[in-house]
Give the backbone structure.
Amino acid sequence: MGISSFRFMSGDTAPGVQVIETDNSQMPASADAIGAVIIGRAKKGPAMVPIKVKSWEQFVANFGDTVPGFQGGDVYRAGNSGQSPMYGTYAAKAYLKANIAPLTYIRVLGEEYYGEKDSGDDPQAGWKTDNLLTANEGTRGGAIGLWVAPSASFDAETIEFAFTGSNSFRLAAVWYLDGGSISLRGRLFGTSSATDPADITGSATLINSDDNGRFKVVISGSNGRGETIAFNLDDTSADFIRKKFNTNPQLRVGGNFYPSTSERDYWLGETYEQELRDASLTSGNLVGVIAGLQLTGSSDNETPANMLGQAALTAGSTARTSWIVGQDQGSATSFKAEDSQRLFRIIDRGHGEWTQRNLKISIERLKQSQSTASPYGTFSLVVRKFGDTDNDVQVVERFDNLTLNPTSPNYIARQIGTQEWTWDTTTHTYPRLVAKIPGGYPNISKYIRVQMDDSIDAGAGGLETLLPWGYFGPPKYSDVTFSGSFTQNTGSDGTTLGNKFIIVDGYLPDTGLKAVAQSPLSSAIAWGEGASINLTCSMKFPSVRIRNSASDGGLSQPTRAYFGMQTTRTATSTRHDQSCADVHRLLYKGFADNPVGSEITGIDSYAYIFTLDDIVNSSVATSGSNYFHRSGSRVDGTSYTATGSNTYKSLLDAGYDKFTVPFWGGSDGFNIRVPDPMYNNGIGSSTEAGSSIYYTWNKAIALTRDPESVDMNMLLAPGLTNTGLNNKITNVCTNRGDSLGIVDLASVYIPTHEVYYADKSSRVGTTPVAVANNRADGTPLNSSYGCTFYPWVQTRDANTGQLVWVPPSVAMVGVIASSEKRTKLWFAPAGFNRGGLTEGAANIPVVNVSERLTSDDRDTLYAADINPIASFPGSGVVVFGQKTLQGESSALDRINVRRLMNYVKKSIAVLANQVLFEQNVEATWNNFRGLVDPFLSNILTQHGITNYELAVQSDADIPPELLAVTGQTDQDWLIDSNILYAKIKIQPARAIEFIALDFVVTRTGVGFND
């Protein structure tokens, strides 16, 4: 210790007492305790990667709260994450509430086999309607669009009308049909005479709304159910389209998840209220037409109704922003927004569709370089809630003082992370996660990672002064243009319509326009027979609004405005518009990593390109300076950065340094047609190539095989009852030798999301005797590293009060954790003291069992190594067994002993690391004894074992497989072979499971000592 460390009481130079204070009182940091791994669904969170959390609060922040299921509402818009219980979330809560160790959670999203798959739909992730629209065959299932436009007028001389420009048709809504047809009903466009029919029905037919923007639709279903529904496009009205139509894709005919009276063979998908409101298409006299959605000249695969093959984490299925670009550094007159220098883009870390529905990115606090030593400026990146507004910014994560300088510690890639994980299926005996790009920066954000442009990442010269200044918008679907001259035709029944009507029939042409409408377009007017009509129309796809003015929303300070995407109901509103998320869902699968410029059919550009270089400053005498956005203003010389001597620095000095960017294109890879996309009845083929569900579960289980990648002492996938997959869970634990698998048996209780039963008693499936017989046949696997329980239990969801049936593994992971918390892990997690579920042993409330077991039932189950959960009058629900799945009788056929041995083996292995690579001499052997003896003695005093013996490097205890070569002594051979050999004999303490009470009744006068 240097003299400068001391402080002299009487000065620095005069003689005196030297004093120093050293703080050795800090508690040394201890390693994390080892906890359970739970595999299951969740509302959000990175998918197919192990994420460790240390508390229930941390779990909720990462993955969301418990989900009781069947929450109804607008299922398509909200996603089907709330329509079935997510058992993994309840198991996580039960475990973490004990507060004994961290939990590792693996959230599953839909994946599919990477090799050659079996035929059919099941091997593919995603969904499709039962039938698909076929080109030039009208609306027979598939995706059907409703297009609306302002009512147009005719030129009486030329008999000509057009729906172009501001009067263009705009996509208002999308229905998905399994069969049958959907048609508009009302007055044919172009007719108004009282003698003309007022109630025409037809698809691909121009139909007028009433004067209040109200339409009628006729849906004829393949199940024989027809419906006529009146609706409008005003979301403040009781007749709003989303309030009138079914929005639940799971109510499909024959789906058998709901009563047949509730089934529908259609559902309403996307609707675009913000676009319609901005175009004044929510009220007044409108004209509508129904036309199917499909790429022209394409196969059935290129339709919004077929999302099969869209696995969640494959390229093109992960939510992302388009490229964020820098400011223009050239002449304003030669500026081309599409040529802006790409800087980086933001990629979701695997949350699926949740990201584009719930998050957006804002760039703010842009600052040019303040130093002559470096030309790089700084900025902040903020992850915001999608539904917030600029008046009430809600930050999820933020990263400040970022730079594009790759040598800086504040480099955006380093501060947020760039690592993309992928599955290596070629160089290992089982799939494992590896970094896709070695050397990437570790991911710091819970939600996002960054992809840098190569030139920025390389520090290319001439780009140092660039700042994030704008972004390319989401991909834009190609507009449909239709024009032609048409003459009289016949009605659909083949009769000539005379001089009353001229029917215009024609398909939107396949002329390389990459259109998505492929149905006849018809109209009629009351002109003379044989007259021709000239019809021109454009059909446009929606986009989210860009903020126009800094003053929109009544901000107290205009400089608080974030330009770019605006998600409010109107330009001046402060309320969020839910339809904005619909715009950012993909209407068909197969998008490349960068859609524009990749010649993707149906895409011709970005929806828009935003840049702060297009901000205009208009001086208004009454209100000072007003900043607003006008696309193209830089190139025409009117934007703020293009006028006078202004530069990008001038705009920053004025305080306009913010913009907002959307995510788009994320997929869950799930079948949205079922309440639980990972349900057991949907597995079908128990092979990776034959079932997407099977492959997804198996992939998640495989992730836990490597002890060096995932540390655990328990493994479970609550609600998974497929025998083959549960055997894989037990096999993983057996092969690792350090974990206990908790598996759920098939057909014990059949929840609603598996199949609908009108008679609730039918949900109780296999009897105890049948379960025991299956066990005798080897189902599930015979191993001391696995265990199972019977029957299901009922809990109460803390948030909704809803009663939820959960598989026994949910309760048992909580019981095992709370038992360890109250005593030690080697005490039996059963009985009235530690297994009382009614008394809170599971850390979640348990109020009932799916089946009340008799004493004979309990005996039958226990004899088959299945642990009963019993309900006793007055005592409540109790775990009444603690056997493992080992059929042979030994100490390891009990859970408490199996967990004791797992703990002892793993702990002593960790202790042994302290002598690894030390000298193989007696002093080291004694050091090893000194480490192990206190550890085992402590377990002995805490009643985990009744006796033990430790021998180190002893000739007498060396097993035959370690014997030396002839001519050497055993101990010498061990030393020469660099081996330290120890034999540890343990007598585990046994739990009392049977109590024998012998009562003797005697005669009066008989002494008790006789």
Remarks:
- The first strand starts at residue 7 and ends at 8.
- The chain has a mean pLDDT of 85.
- Residues 616 and 639 are 4 Å apart (CA to CA).
